[in-house]
Fold each of these.
Amino acid sequence: MIALQVTLVLLRELLRALVVPLRLLAYLPRRHHWRRVAREVLDQAAHEPPADAAAALREFFAMARPPRGERPHLFVSAGEASGEMHAAALVRALPGVRASAFGGQALAAAGANVHFPLSEHAVMGVGGALRELPRILRAFATFLRLLRDDPPDLVVLVDYPGLHVVMAKACRRARVPVLHYVAPQYWAWGPWRMRRYRRAVDATLTILPFETAFFRRFRVPAAYIGHPLVDALSHAPPDAAAVAAVRARPTLVLLPGSRRAEIAVNLPGMLQVARALRAEHGDVRVVLAHKDPGRTPMIRELLQQHDAAWVEHHEGPLGAWLQGARLVLAKSGTGSLEACLHQAPTIVVYQLRGLLAALGYHNILSVPWIAAANLIAGRGVVPEHCFARDAGWNNVLADARRLWSDEAARREVFAGLAEVQRRLGAAGATTRVAAIVRTFLGLEDRR
């Protein structure tokens, strides 16, 4: 029976993949409608604080039932490393719960019974999914057996929407409630997927404050629980002496991205901007800070190819570099938001790779900005540039010159970044998620 279910799901997902081009064609005539919707949601979110979780998730809490066993059974799944860290923190915050999981060593160390090592071979993109298809099918079959033999009282799926939406639909058929932690960015790419998402999950938890308004607009119960970056910065602020050492000399920090392809496409343009600032201002220290030691050989090879021995490459935490920098050039993503949360004047960039990426940006993207800081504020608080041709770096350089020297422009950016910090709210994302789970499982009084 399980083999038949897996086969049927595989055929259905393959069919869905085949009709994606048709969905895109159907979307194009309505893209201006979806952009208006996104603009309305962002404007609404900019003027209204996120709703209280108890009120926002009222429908979800109404689904709660007494636990099946002596202790509530929670299933948690994470498909990649960052998601597993959130999942492991959640399990540690729920000592009275029996936890089973898909994940890896971090979840096992947190006390979960890991049924499948899902996070140890993270899958990215269609090509990666096809290469890992046998493993993905084994994971899904394992999950179906768990639903049949030891059904959880609640399933929490962390990020990783591709496989997790399929797993959520299986939960719906088995009448097991599903909470999705770290909502997918359907508000930016492919809002037509909201209908399927609404039919799969029972509630979603967002890490960006404007997202709740989007999901509620499509009748998905949603609550904002805070951004894990705020937690990380509050738990491990950069050393004051290290920050002072960076500030002792005007420093430009480069964050070209975390993936190999991102570094390859963004670093040459960033070096071009850095070289021009050095020529104009002389004593400019240029630092390429990176968290992943695995990228070091590639980065140093690129620096050598571009004759950039004047760039300092540093591995490890970014906090002191970002907080002490005079200016940061950051590829759009988590790194750019981290720079903004350190109150660093930041220019967000993304050089598109290939014709399809350029067409997608101009025709499919539904939000007016790509930088998380601008989306959170509902206006352009930091410059951002998304372009396909190398000439786009000339516009980046113009903004870099302005933010390096123009104190009035810098004060305006600082004010905008303070607004972003305020909108994100206080630390405690994991604590809030754990409180929601405890309430659902009947481990504390509902409020």
Amino acid sequence: MRNSVLIADFLILSPAILAFTRVMKPEGSVWSLATFMLYPGLILIDNGHFQYNDISLGLFTLAVALILQSRELCASVAFVLALNYKQMELYHALPFFFYLLGLCFGQKNWFSTFLKLCKIGLAVIVTFGFIWWPFLQYPEQVVQVIHRIFPVNRGLFEDKVANFWCSLNVIYKLKAINQDTLVLISALVTLLTALPSNLALFWRPSKDQFILALFNTSMSFFLFSYHVHEKSILLVAFPALMAYKAIQGHRYSNFTLTWFLIVSTFSMWPLLLKDGLALATLALQGIFVAFAHYLGLLDFGAKNEGTTNLKRTSPKPLTNKDLIKGHVQDWTLWTLFNLSVIGYGTMMLASVYLLPPAKYPDLWPLVISVYSAGHFVVFWMYFLYCQFKAFQSIVTHEKKTN
């Protein structure tokens, strides 16, 4: 069975990642492929915790690659396959919907809009119909399948997960609220927090914005949606791996993406420790950090791909004040990164060697979850800022050209 995971990696995930990297980064596709394949989170969950996320994430990655090649019909089919393989791909559904809708409404005339909309809609409906046909013949089975896809009765979150609700539960016990009310609140908060990113994508459907919207939307779902697993962070990690080239003009973008990926693996420590994967986690994390450092993904400035081609808008030379400000920002971010890693190291050691008080048996998993949730909120806000800067840049460019 473990070999079947490797076979899925070889047949589905690796070709999909290679297709994406050749479209997004044709000059360095081998290094990009290695960055994806060395991400510790997916290796540990699929090969240690034993899951088949590589199939759904592979189909999702293929869909994104097809979007970047402007092959929207094939992309729609690939994403529907990913969504029907694992319902968690709903984390990525809104950006696909709003991007494709934005392209449809961006056509030259209403007839072209209607025609493109019909083509994409037909591709989606036919693919859904083909997959669901065995169940559609027996309506009672459809109800049962939907019930199992959305296990509402299992609670707002399972175990300790690094999201908003689990952290809020420390202060206010959410079990006191009616379950139906919790479902409604969770759905509304998730949609409201995801909507700004997707509306920006709809109004200006660019490919870079699409990838940033994938990250921001999936982060909204992870932080605020109902019944989140700790391993669901993988659905945010893949858009983060895709975003290395998508974010232009931000000095700290690659560094912040790498920091997020490191934190995403550490956030699953309680689960990985329970599965006996402590040594494997530390080893794979070390390999990933070393590789990221080799590629310059933990550096600032010129080595950062997001700023390599960035030109200063002002002809004025940098003043001493500008240089000092830049050094202070660099030092502050590097210090915060090191404190973040030290904090994780301390909590991980404590979870292994220090028994929690009898009154609080889940102390260490809870502390790690809340600590990680704080990181994720900051990352989410930063990349929302990056997307709206990209949106503003597109609007400004359009005004200049018009």
